[in-house]
């Protein structure tokens, strides 16, 4: 259900705002679909979800690995799961590259946040 709504959301909001194409896309939806699509957009506008979350919802239906699944595999380091990851890399090179780059940025930011100047502030000199 969520994947279908996410796909419809992308169809509607990938068109230019105020254009005839967007009007046609909105008019092609049923009332319940329209409500769900606009609720999803409202959640995005309020910051409850991100565009990446919406894209992940779409990928669930198609069977493509989501970023959260990728991250879980990378943090787990299980041999069978790493084989699954290499298969994913073969099938979806561009998406794999995007996930890898995002994961590396997150890890680097996490590492930098752990070792800031405040980490070593007010520590006694203990080499004596």
Describe it for me?
By secondary structure, the protein is mostly helical. Helices cover 72% and strands 0% of the residues. The chain is built from seven helices and no strands. Helix 1 crosses helix 3 and helix 6 packs across helix 7. The longest helix is centred in the last third of the chain and has 22 residues. It is extended. The model has no long low-confidence stretch (mean pLDDT 81).
**Counting H and I runs of at least 4 residues, what is the number of helices?**
7
Helix content: over 70%
Shape: extended
DSSP, total strands:
0
Biggest β-sheet description: none
Instruction: Give the radius of gyration.
Output: 21 Å
Order of helices and strands: HHHHHHH
Mean of pLDDT:
81
- N-to-C CA distance: 65 Å
Note poorly predicted spans.
Answer: none
Structural class: mainly alpha
- Sheet-strand content, in percent, reads under 5%
For the structure shown, list the relevant keywords.
mainly alpha; 7 helices
List the helices and strands and how they pair.
Layout: H1 2-13, H2 20-27, H3 31-45, H4 51-62, H5 67-76, H6 79-91, H7 93-114
Report a brief summary of the structure.
Helix content is 72%, strand content 0%.
